Structure formats: C-alpha cells, structure tokens
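Batch manifest, entry 17 of 40.
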Amino acid sequence: NTEEVSKVLKYCNENDINVIPRTGTSSGEGLLEVRDPNTIILDGAPMNKILKIDTYNMMATCECGVPLHVLEDLVRKEGLTTGHSPQSQPVAFMGGLVATRSIGQFSTYYGGIEDMLCGLEAVMPDGRIIRIRNVPRRASGPDLRHLFLGCEGGLAFITEVTVKLFPYYPDEMWMGGYIVKDMETGFKAVRAVMARGYKPSVVRLYDKPDIDYNF
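Output type: structure tokens
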C-alpha cells in the first residue's frame, strides 16, 4: 500500500539505494536496465484495487497496479469507457500509463493520458505522500499533474490515479479503410480531415510493409 511504499522509499533515500519503480513492464524498448548493483526494483503491481467508479462525476479511481483492461471491462458494464487503448492494453497498468505519458489508438477523439488524468497520489523519494485533488481543471497556478505525467518514476512513485470516463457507444461505430496511391497522398488526406475539425476515434495511415507485417 501507499504507506509501505513511503517506508521503502524513505529507507532507500536515507541509505543511498537506487529505486526503479515499475508496474506492468509492458514496454518493448529495452525494458528495465539496472546500471548500479546498489538498486532495487519496487513493483506496484500488487496494488491492484479499483477504489471507486463514480458514474455521476464520470471518474474512476484506482491503485497503480490495476491493469487497464480490467478497469475498461468493469466500466463497460456501466456503458462507459476510459477511452484509452494503447497497443499495450492487455498488459498495461494504470500507474505506468501515467508515468510514461501514454497515448492510445483512440487519442484523436479522447486525447492522451494527460487529457484523461484528473488527479493522483504519489510518494516522493523522501517518503512524503502527496495528493493532487480530482478536479476537472485548475483555475490558477501551474497544473501539478504535469510534473508527474511522463516522469518515468524519476520524480516520484505514483500509487493512485483518477481518470475520466466517457459514454461508450459500440452500436454507433463505423469502421472503414481507403487505399491511396502513396504515403504523401495519405498524409494530405488525413490532414484535410483533421483540419476541417472532424474528430474520428482512430485515424491510421499504413504503408505496404507495415500492412504486410501486421495483417
């Protein structure tokens, strides 16, 4: 729990022990490399409680170790969605999504994780526990959420996050594809769609090698 994370970080800070925070370890880009033997990996995956689904205020609060697909499956039963769908969704955890400033395939419509994050709880290296309140926007001063979004665990250990929820309309989805003669034509077409103000959930442009590899 958060208090245990606080005790561990306080001890490590006082004894010059390096700490690598992690939850899902879903990244394929080198994963975790320990450069100093005086290092521990602090795994938040066991912190996997969904604390609150607030359908009135359209927010979900959960611990850092909650898998994204578990939260998504739960809120779908309420006719809602997180709107976040990275390729790592089956193995992604909520704390890691915030720490890595994740973006999903539906970002054109819902935005990235920075647009979904309402508030959070985190533990500083010296063991201090801080909380950023769950409010829709800040009326004054800097937005402190952005200190932790994308910090990769270098600034603090994120223990709890609250994200927005959105209505889910599975019966109103339309999916289609078009073949264009080259990538330049495709880029111009995508730009024209976006510049006109349309906000499709997903817009993806593939070249032939990518299509051959994926499909």
